[in-house]
Amino acid sequence: MADNALRIWIVTLVTGLVLATSAAVHAQDKVPWTHPGPLLPDSSNFVTASLLVASPGEAMYSSYGHCALRMESPINNLDYCFSFEMDFDESFVDYVKFFAANVQSHIIAVPTSEYLGQYRKEGRGVRQYELNLTTHEKQELWRTLDNDYVDVQFRKYNLLENNCSSILFATLLNAPIDRTIEFSTFPEQFNNKSGVRIRYYTQLSPWAEFLDMTFLGTESDTNCDLVYRISPEAFGPAIKAMSLVDNDGNKTPMLVSEKELLTKKLEVTPTTWSPLLIFSIFFVIVAILTIFEWFGKSKRVNRVMDVILLVLQTIAGIIILYTSFVSGLFGKHWNWYLIPFNPLPLLIWLIWRRRKGFYKVYLFYTAVLVLFILATPLSEQLDLPHQLITATLAVRCFFNYIDGKRNATTAAITKTKKKHNKNKK
Question: Which one-letter DSSP state was computed for residue 52?
Answer without folding.
Answer: E
